[in-house]
Amino acid sequence: MSGTITIDGKTMPFTGGQTIMDAALAAGVYIPHLCHNPEFKPHGSCKLCVVEANGRNVTSCTMPASPGMVVVNDTPELNEDRKALVQMLFVEGNHICPACEATGNCQLQAAGYYLHMQSPHFMHFYPPRRVDASHPDIFLDLNRCILCELCVRASRDIDKKSVFGISSRGIDSHLVVNSESGRLGDTSMAVTDKAAHVCPTGAILIKRKGYTVPMGKRLFDQKTLREFHLEQQKRVEPEDGPDGG
Amino acid sequence: MADEKRKIRIATCSLAGCFGCHTSMLDIDERLFDLLEMVEFDRTPFTDIKHCGPCDIGIVEGGVSNAENAHVLKEFRENCKVLVAIGSCAITGNVPALRNNIDLWNCFQEVYLYDPGTEGKQIPNDPELPLPFDKVYPIYEVVKVDYFLHGCPPPANAIWKFLTDLIQGRQPETGHELLRYD
Ligand code: SF4
Ligand code: SF4
Ligand code: FES
């Protein structure tokens, strides 16, 4: 199946199997997102990518495009909802940006900037979460994990190691490490693994690499999350768009 | 006198803050002279006024970590028409809130009893001292806050833009380039 869809009045083509997100990104149209990464299967947890498609709110990263679909994306209402979602993520963890090595390079933070989040608005949870420094090269701080499962997907699908998983239910859901001790140091994870480099926040950090880039030169000092995500798409599909025909 | 009355009255304070946000306020440099044309200061660390009186704008740096912080914050809220949370501490609790998952008594023992450098080995218990709370709270979790100015500290240009907007009766607008959480 292929055809065209319309996003905020702009018409763009899609090919079989493409989601609204795929078609939008291929056409250079930005839909805010955190758990989506064009290199991986969609996940659908962050809900930032929710758009109105044919009158219903759907997650654009999982919703297949269909011929003639009319999508509403960049509206003050939807962006307000997205901001509220980012605020929820901020208060749910301990996101102390001034003391985080990922600051300036963090997509959660950049989403806050992009959506003009001035305050966390909700009450903070201050959850008592773990840090795991057992690995010689990689540091894990679950206080900053937003459960996007990008590390889970990368480790399982690309590194073929399945180092990470998600455990428990509801607000107790958390990232777990698949070793008997539960410690990262007791897995086969290597600093060269894809999973070590996909975390959009400061939850997975490479040791001894913090604060090497001066303020003003960090990723999101230079560009917005929108610019970053549109470039990320281009890196994945350098030529003529997904599936190429 | 009549002229003075028309000036906007501003109070500021630091609760569980580091005075960095106040330092960033001073970083507007010679624009301080312009500011003083437009406003007069009530209680702030820059004046000798002990209590916050009726004000147009109250600016609060730092989170709430002890009973005195809560007391001062409530006094600000009661007296200021507009209350502004300035800096990450007032907005999220920030670095001081890193203690929120450490037992308070353990903190005290570590600092006053176990640390090899302490003399006397006694946890301070004079009633003059404000009792600490078990957690550090952002100020909006204690009183209603009208505006937030993020950053640790917010850049001087953000503070200047924000204040001039507010003083001149505009909706404060700090654009993308002035918004930061770190
Ligand atoms: S550790 Fe990072 S990549 Fe993994 S689930 Fe948490 S936020 Fe996502
Ligand atoms: S926000 Fe930063 S600069 Fe302001 S009081 Fe807190 S630690 Fe200091
Ligand atoms: S990007 Fe679609 S739910 Fe996260």
Task: Give the tags.
heterodimer; A: 245 residues; alpha+beta; 5-stranded mixed β-sheet; 3-stranded antiparallel β-sheet; 6 helices; 10 strands; globular; B: 182 residues; alpha/beta; two-stranded antiparallel sheet; 7 helices; elongated; binds iron/sulfur cluster; binds FE2/S2 (inorganic) cluster
Summary, kept brief:
The complex is a heterodimer of chains A (245) and B (182). By secondary structure, chain A is α+β, with helices and mostly antiparallel strands.
Topology:
The complex is a heterodimer of chains A (245) and B (182).
Chain A: E1 3-7, E2 10-14, H1 20-26, E3 50-53, E4 56-59, E5 70-72, H2 76-92, H3 107-114, E6 131-132, E7 138-141, H4 150-158, E8 164-167, E9 174-177, E10 204-206, H5 219-222, H6 225-236
Parallel strand pairs in A: 1-5
Antiparallel strand pairs in A: 1-2, 3-4, 3-5, 6-7, 7-10, 8-9
Chain B: H1 2-5, E1 8-14, H2 20-26, H3 31-38, E2 39-41, E3 55-61, E4 64-66, H4 67-79, E5 80-86, H5 88-92, H6 104-114, E6 132-137, E7 147-149, H7 156-167
